[in-house]
Each structure stands twice: as structure tokens, then as C-alpha cells.
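From the pipeline queue, job 12 of 40. The input is one protein chain; the requested action is below.

Action: predict structure.
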Amino acid sequence: MLDWLTDDMPLLYLSTAIYTGVFLLSLGQLIRTERYGRPLKYIALWGAFIVQFMALSVRGKEIGGCPLGNPMEIIQFLTWSAVFLFLVTFPFYRLNLLGIFVSGFASVLNIISLAVPSWDYPYEDRVFGGNPWIELHAALAMFSYGM
């Protein structure tokens, strides 16, 4: 019954759909100059972030390391880290326009990464040769690019 929790692609599609929904809702409210719905959008972004984290975790368990081995995984990791930065800073600074940008950024990049199937190719060996320090360094570098 919960097979979709052990497959990363449905989770990635779900997180992309949530990011896109938040972006379209925010853009519509911006055009109409409405200022309500902030908590709902913030909670929805947290939900999309958690779903994307679950997908990246499933993929990481499959490959036995950080999922940074192909372009699709790199883009997913970048969008995940950019959304994380927004979610952490929003309660302190209330940057609503940044939320619209981040949700649009995440939805566009996720749609592109999922729309090009050749970017999600399998790789036999661990990308960083099994060295956890190099893998940590690469993950932090990608995280900082997202920031």
C-alpha cells in the first residue's frame, strides 16, 4: 500500500507539483495585490521540502551515498537547499517576494530536471569513490550553491 514511499520519482513529482501550486497561488495573489494566505503557503512549502527530502533520502539509500551523481540529482539537491534557506530565514525577515521567487525557482528547475529523462542515468560506482569526506565536501559545496 505504501510502495510510493519507497520509490523516489513519485515523491519528486509530488514535491514539484506542490512547489508549482504555491508559485501559481502566490503569483496570482501578487497580481491581485492580496496579502492573505502566507501561513498556508509557508506550510505547503515545508510539505514540499519534506517530500523532496524523502525522495532524495530514498535515492541516497539506493545508491549508498549522497545523490549527486547525475544532472537530475544535482538540480534536485540545489532546489532543495534553496528552499531550505528560504524556510529558515522567512520567520525572521518575512521576505514574501523571496518566497514567490523560491517557489518559482524550485518548480521551474524541478520541472526541467524531470522533463529530461536522459539526465537521470544510472551510475555503477559511487561517485566519490566511497570516501565519506569527499562526499561530505561535495554535498556541502552543492548546498552552498543552492544558498
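Job complete. The chain has a mean pLDDT of 85.
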